[in-house]
Write a structure and sequence with these properties.
Elements lengths: L5 E2 L4 E4 L14 E3 L1 H7 L30 H4 L3 H7 L1 H8 L9 H7 L4 H11 L3 H13 L17 H5 E2 L2 E4 L9 E2 L10 E2 L7 H7 L15 H6 L2 H4 L4 H5 L13 H7 E7 L3 E8 L13 E8 L12 E5 L1 E6 L2 E7 L7 E7 L5 E9 L2 H14 L5 H15 L2 E9 L2
Parallel strand pairs: 5-7
Antiparallel strand pairs: 1-2, 2-3, 4-5, 6-7, 8-9, 9-14, 10-11, 10-15, 12-13, 15-16
Helix pairs in contact: 3-4, 5-15, 14-15
The structure holds heme C (5 copies).
One heme C binds next to helix 6, helix 8, helix 9 and helix 12.
């Protein structure tokens, strides 16, 4: 039932069986293992490389930990890692990776069988032990409602990126750049340090959907391909450079006003006949925004002499990739996203007052609110556990918008 791997130039992409179309966005799931397999094809696997199976999803169970290890060293819970790596735990906790086993996801999983749930969990709670924990919690739920989902609730946690067979993998040592296996007498048997942790391809397992799922030539999430074509890739600026500066585990993105501001340059120009708002993507290593779920709107309006909005004077420009499912087939309605270096412009004629206001609105979860959750809420029984979670996710999605760059421009 699983379509076998397709070979692409730099990627071996395994297609995943298409799960039900409830997610509404990425109806099928995939993973790209490619880069690592390709790197190693024909080359003997050097000791300081990531094993080729590292990102082969679904991940295999970790198995038995060495008997001599303490309970903390054996544990897969992020809180246990945090006993020794407290800075990483504190940072990760604030990130969306920690929240990946979210109400919007679980509300959907409750309507899926174990196989379809497992497919979603490959990116949202990737450890085999998390899949087991979720299925155990599902069986328990009738007797103990609200008891949580054990390790699954940790979402995209430390182990999913750092552990295989209980062995720790990490980037080259910070101070020395050393690679290879460290001292085996250190806690958890030391660590295998490999350069792949510093490469953009490390993120592709979950942030690059396969070309075979393309809509109008582009998969719904095409971030690695966008990055490869960007000036950032040419200058060696990786996903980690922007999303994990100083190796911080924060992964700020479209939900964070400061992060979004850091990637854009707004310009406000008072021309003879009009006022202009130009927005340029200057420090983003992929399309702005990269996913199909956010919506961005450049807005402007005329102000009257008293500084109040002139009725019906509002103008706007939408920055978004709009996709839609028509009779089960995905189509692209439009794609006005900004590629690195590209600009968009909004213009408004001067009103009598000579004053115009501009601003930028960001709706990080627009598609979920407008399409996914509203459809689910129509389909699900209102008092079901799934409907309650989706309603909660919808409230969060509705509330996540924010405004940037609000500016009043005066006619010269
Ligand atoms: C008992 C304390 C302890 C626990 C618990 C622990 N670690 Fe470590 N960890 C260490 C020490 C000490 C080192 C340095 C090892 C070395 O230099 O050989 C280390 C190194 C690492 C490194 C490499 C960092 C570097 O110095 O290059 C990673 C990645 C890592 N641990 C991940 C984890 C994860 C993930 C967990 C939880 C599943 C975890 N550790 C649990 C003590 C711990
Ligand atoms: C095991 C899968 C997986 C891997 C590997 C992974 N991510 Fe993610 N990432 C996710 C998921 C799932 C989410 C969405 C979490 C949520 O909100 O449910 C996410 C969210 C994010 C976000 C936040 C997006 C927002 O909406 O604000 C950023 C930024 C991000 N990831 C960057 C990275 C980078 C950089 C890497 C590589 C170092 C990486 N991710 C590796 C699965 C992964
Ligand atoms: C190939 C990896 C991958 C798979 C498989 C996957 N997702 Fe996601 N999902 C992501 C990433 C990455 C994001 C965040 C995207 C971004 O911000 O750019 C995300 C975001 C989401 C979100 C919005 C954030 C949140 O957690 O509320 C929901 C809901 C979601 N996914 C549900 C699902 C469901 C349901 C499935 C299975 C049908 C699924 N996902 C399978 C990678 C994946
Ligand atoms: C989405 C994948 C991902 C998750 C989840 C994740 N890490 Fe990491 N971690 C990385 C990457 C990638 C690097 C290397 C970043 C770089 O080199 O810029 C790293 C680096 C590290 C380092 C080395 C830091 C240094 O200064 O040398 C430690 C220690 C570590 N992680 C521990 C953890 C712990 C503990 C957790 C959970 C609380 C965790 N990681 C969760 C991907 C992840
Ligand atoms: C030059 C800096 C830079 C690089 C390189 C970069 N990003 Fe981003 N990324 C940003 C900024 C700034 C944002 C916030 C604006 C936005 O959403 O595009 C962002 C947003 C995101 C988001 C939020 C969702 C969305 O729709 O925009 C995800 C997920 C993400 N990046 C993943 C990645 C991955 C994976 C890579 C590597 C393949 C990467 N980024 C490379 C700067 C960068």
């Amino acid at each position: 039932m699983i379509p076998r791997s397709l070979k692409l130039c730099d990627a071996t992409i395994l297609d995943k069986p298409s799960s039900r179309n409830l997610m509404g966005v990425s109806r099928t799931h995939l993973r790209v293992i490619g880069f690592l397999l390709c790197l190693s094809s024909g080359i003997a696997l050097a000791e300081e490389r990531l094993p080729t199976h590292f990102w082969r999803q679904p991940l295999a169970p970790q198995g038995e930990a060495p008997r001599t290890w303490s309970t903390e060293e054996r544990s897969l819970a992020p809180e246990s890692c945090g006993g020794c790596h407290s800075d990483k735990l504190e940072e990760w906790r604030t990130s969306f990776h920690a929240k990946a086993f979210s109400p919007g996801l679980v509300g959907q999983l409750l309507t899926y069988d174990a196989g379809d749930s497992a497919a979603c969990m490959e990116c949202h709670a990737p450890l085999a032990e998390q899949r087991q924990a979720f299925e155990a919690a599902r069986r328990r739920a009738e007797t103990e409602p609200g008891a949580g989902h054990g390790l699954a609730d940790a979402g995209n946690s430390c182990g999913g990126c750092h552990l295989r067979g209980h062995r720790r993998f990490g980037p080259p040592q910070r101070e020395t750049g050393a690679v290879g296996q460290s001292d085996a007498s250190a806690p958890h048997g030391g660590v295998m340090r490999v350069p792949e942790f510093e490469k953009s391809e490390f993120c592709a397992a979950c942030h690059q959907f396969p070309q075979s799922q393309a809509i109008n030539g582009k998969p719904l999430e095409n971030t690695l391909v966008e990055w490869k074509q960007s000036p950032a890739a040419r200058s060696g600026t990786t996903c980690q450079s922007c999303h994990m500066p100083e190796r911080k585990h924060l992964w700020r993105g479209i939900h964070d006003p400061d992060m979004v501001r850091s990637g854009l340059t707004p310009e406000f120009v008072a021309e003879h006949a009009t006022a202009r708002f130009r927005l340029t993507s200057t420090r983003i290593g992929h399309a702005f925004p990269t996913y199909v779920t956010p919506k961005v709107m450049m807005k402007g309006l005329a102000l009257d002499e008293a500084g109040e909005p002139v009725p019906r004077s509002e103008v706007s420009h939408v920055i978004q990739r709009q996709v839609e499912s028509v009779d089960g087939d995905w189509i692209e309605r439009s794609d006005t996203r900004l590629l690195p270096g590209q600009s968009a412009m909004l213009e408004i004629a001067w009103p009598k007052s000579g004053r115009v206001k501009f601003w930028l609105e960001i709706y990080p979860d627009d598609f979920y609110h407008q399409h996914v959750y509203s459809n689910l809420l129509r389909e699900l029984a209102a008092d079901s556990a799934a409907a309650k979670l989706i309603a909660e996710a919808d409230r969060t999605a509705q509330g996540s918008h924010f405004t940037l760059f609000e500016t009043t421009v005066q006619r010269p």
